[in-house]
Specification:
CATH architecture of one domain: Sandwich
Radius of gyration: 25 Å
Shape: globular
Largest sheet: 8 strands, parallel
CATH superfamily of one domain: glycosyl hydrolase (family 31)
Structural class: alpha+beta
CATH topology of one domain: Immunoglobulin-like
Distance between the termini: 55 Å
Strand content: 15-25%
Number of helices: 15
Amino acid sequence: MPDPALAEWARAQLAAQPIEYHDTLAAAVGASPAPITLLEQAADGSVEVTLQLTADERLWGAYDADAHKLSRRGEHVHLISEMHPRGRHRMVADQCDRCASAPVRELALDIGAKSNYGELLIPFTMSSEGWGLYISNQWHDAQLDLGDRDPNVLRYTAPAGHADVYIIGPGDPATLSAEFVRLTGHQPLPPAWALGFIQSRFGYESFDHVHTTLERFEQERLPVHGIVFDVQWLEDHVNLRWDPTNFPDPAGNLGRIADRGVRTVVITEPGTTVYASNHASGAERAVFATDASGAEFDSDQWYSKRGITKYRPVPDSSGALVNVFREDAADWWYDQHRPLVEHGVDAWWLDLNEPEDVTPDVRFPQIDWPAPRRELAGMEARGIFAITQQRLFAKRDRASTSRRPFVLSRAASAGSQRYGAAPWTGDVGATWEDLRVQPRLVLNAGLCGIPLSGSDVGGFNGDPGPELFARWMQAGSMLPIFRAHGYMVDREPWSQGAEALDAIRPSLTLRAQLLPSIASWTRAALDAGQPLARPMLLGPLGTEPGSTVALEYMRDPRWQDADDQWFFGPLLTAPVFEEAATSRSIHLPPGEWVDVWTGERHEGGGTITVPVTLATLPILIQPRTLLVVDPDPLAGRGRSWPPAELLAWSWAQETAEATAEFYLDDGITRMHEQGAYCHQRVTAFGSHVEMERIAGAYPSSRIKLAKPTPGR
């Protein structure tokens, strides 16, 4: 079966290549930069691939929620689509000699009480020796050992299936990551509002609750660009209709939200129950997964069996899981969502799409994608369910709307970015330890081809308290998807009191001010197959992969494992991750760096220590980098886009230039694909701004030079 991770370009290239046969693995590998020593399928159907590692070799990539550091050598990855506590996989409890073991009952998901992480299934690894390796095998419960058991060997094992091995290189990490994106596909440009601030919680209980919340944003003079409806919007939790009691007149109420300049995202689950209004229609069309006997599979999800602790009970019923691999079933499922688009819903939140209850006995009959087949069995389907579901929505959104694809998704795999997927790290706990992990996972996702991801800012489970919440909001404002979320608690910026709000306000306002630049950086990053949030080892956005500067960043030992400071576009940010901190050490690359808040200049190449208060979010910029910003970040940019007038902020000396390549379009539709965009070079010198169009036919906004006023 073809790998759903591969982009159409890659499939066409592979189909055009003549097949070569070799007598030995050494002959097949040839002059490849990756030292593969074993590629074997055993008599029991299991697959094994091994590579020899050198003594000082570094490894990056290999996404894993359990990662202890950015540099991945010495760890191992379970390629399992599940939610789990860090380091403790439920599916391999008492089976892995390297994982912390615990009774299965202690590993069970307890929504609202534990820290549970999701996974991205991306067996892609990069080496400091200049090679990249992607192993294509869709079978669930594979394992990638990165020198854990044997420090000199990288070993991939899968219980079944075939293994196609893709060797990339030679190149530096930026080159290898970009080539992997070329193989698996570029993320399409998201709507501009999705790069602003998105407010969420479990959950808003009514339209009145949402309107009151948005009124408070206006009263507090705080920006918000999107708002998320969790399961509370659903009639009886699963009927894809608005609950008539608490969410009446959806078109009218969504129109009121839109009038405030805010976009809406709604959650949708991967199936339904036998009691739901849409089940009979689906069963008649046989659109649901089955068990091995051919009977409809009884999906064990919270909405069909057990409910959620501290939340409304649900009647015990049989669940049904949609066969997303079959096109007519996918059409039927999207049709259930079509009225929501007509009401004014702007984007989807795809939840529970691991899906964790798919076992070896589950069958998906008569599939069409990734290739026609009589049936797809559970352990081959589970790891690619999410990307298939993402494709379902992206393909049909494109056919029936003009909007850009954007889907929050709890699960993802290699190639998910092609369909607009923006995963988050899971139902993480509100602890300092959990906060410290989030940047590492988002940065690693970017290295693995997933450029737009984030976390539940503030932590999903538990109460962060004022200081931790403020620090999480600050860090989240410098990551691609900035979305606050929590379980049965408030996660609005004011939720932890006045002191925390005062500390949050500058970074939240700055995120909104920067939105024109962030949208521009995102376009540049996606086109180049590069992350938006960048580990230090890649250098700032705009660093040419393979260049002398790129190699210097990669070889600098300070950056090879750095994950507590990073580049957000061209900005160097070093959020505070320690409780009660009074100072923050920041390692600077060579050159001059300027504090965006104070204008203080620092000579690079060493380490500086800056004093911090609760409101401090260290951000530095190279003085010849120009920022194009929104002069009115409270103008409801979820709708009012692009701004008619923009400001240029420069920290360059009076006799020096500051420049930016700036991209602008309507921020919502796909008309940029037809040339409706403006790509220009903006230069500030002295008191003047010059604009030079590079490409595109979209009208430019007015840009004038102004003194930087970040966060104000």
